[in-house]
Amino acid sequence: MKKKNMFVRFASYYKPHKTLFIIDMICAFTISAFNLVYPYITKEIINNYVPNKLITMLLSAAGLLLGFYIVKAGLNYFMHCWGHIVGVRIQSDMRREMFTHLQKLPFAYFDDNKTGVIMSRMTNDLFQVSELAHHGPEDVFLSAITLVGAFILLATINIYLALIVFAFIPFFVLFIILMRKNMKKVYAETRVAQGEVNADIESAISGMRVSRAYTASEHERQKFDVGNDRFVLSRYRQFKLLGKFHATMTFFMDFLYFAVLLAGGLFFYYGIIDVGDFTAFVLYISTLITPIRTLVTIYDQIQEGATGFKRFCDVMDEQPETENENALSPDSLSGDIVFDNVTFGYDSDGDGEKKSVIKDFSMTIPPGKTIALVGPSGGGKTTLCHLIPRFYEIDGGKITIDGIDIRDMSRYSLRKNIGIVQQDVFLFNGTVRENIAYGNFDATDEEIIDAAKKANIHDYIMSLPEGYDTGVGERGIKLSGGQKQRISIARAFLKDPPVLILDEATSALDNATEMLIQDALYKLAEGRTMLVVAHRLSTIKNADEIIVITSNGVEERGTHEELMANGGMYKTLYEYQFKNL
Fold first, then answer.
1. Separation in Å, CA 269 to CA 39, 40, 45, 261, 273
2. What is the mean pLDDT of residues 547-558?
């Protein structure tokens, strides 16, 4: 599919707000017209009304000018108020579109891109785009109208003097073209550096407790200084170019004014123009310099906005998770899961070369059974859990549920039937109630409380100052690890899925609480397919089947009793965990 031209793509965001935009452009056009009328009226006053003592015409002209200025003030108010609102609305549309698109991107994108960098694109970059959306078309249009109008009116006074003035314009345009390429590159570098600084700040603040615990504050400061210094260097290059640009443009405008005074003075001296024409010419040059100064000022903003929009488009051009056109949408699954020669690897370096984690892996999980995955770290247990809800696309083989290839199901239907409780629990910055309700947003308060009771967290919640309406803080910082995990388990109870994945779901619980949770989990497992990843082997003794996985695949499988009797890897791991008890 051919990508749209960047300008056409940017212009398309004005469509929903075209009425306000058109009114804004009409205001800009009217203001330009008023600016062009002022020198003409001045010329008439000096050449005609004053010398001929036409007091009525003089007062009428003065009244007309005053009326123009009053109307102009109202138009300027509209442009600065509603023009900015157009920019903010476009920014809001882009942010909404970007956020929606991010929700559809594959997990691999978030593996390769820092949260702070993504946040920078959604906030800083789009703010600059908003400013460009307002000031860009408005100022460029106003300046263009004023430049063209001023040239026409200057030509009516004296075509040769007008041509002398406008002979300098091509040099101005050429300089901008030569500067544009370098400035575009530097602005892009600045945006990347700013995104990296934001990412470092986000990481440092999120990990503040860890850095303090390991007395690593100085290390974090040094790491931040590297990114911060890079940002300062990129800004230095940016402002160095910008200073060169503004200095040259200021000299150009001053020289233009000098040329007009010199040439106009000579024309007046030799009687080619009269005093009124000379005065009008000087005023028109002032009118002419104003849009040039505006274009010089806005050039920096155009570069900032264009760079921000390019980075916005980079995100929007990322391919979302693919969906089969004829995807099936089963309402409910029984949970008959089959891995058939599955191969999968991560592109950890971002160079397209994948490091294989699972190769030709086959496994069957019967419906309604509890299957435990154990084995040394790096064997791919958590990866298998991520492949079932299709968080990542497999490189070979297939995974089926109830005989249906998961690639032939809609992602929504697939994930609706799967509940996941992970070791690294993520709680949203909201209330306890809101976090549990992620399992089912349509749940009643009674159902939320019931889920909390099953997860053995209800009594603790009731001891909080505001009960279920107590805020958990960012990422659940106000709760302990065990409390966060129990809220996560309550989510799973509330979702009531036919397939349940527990990835070290009880790792942060004390032994007493873990026993209570285990009872609740096995009650939840009745009639469902449950896949449990555990390093604490005592928690999976009652599983219907235990599968030992290593980097070579399935090493052995069976019940706890069978594996202990076999005397293989499972027995070695189990006895190692309990040798000091």
1. 21, 21, 21, 12, 8
2. 82
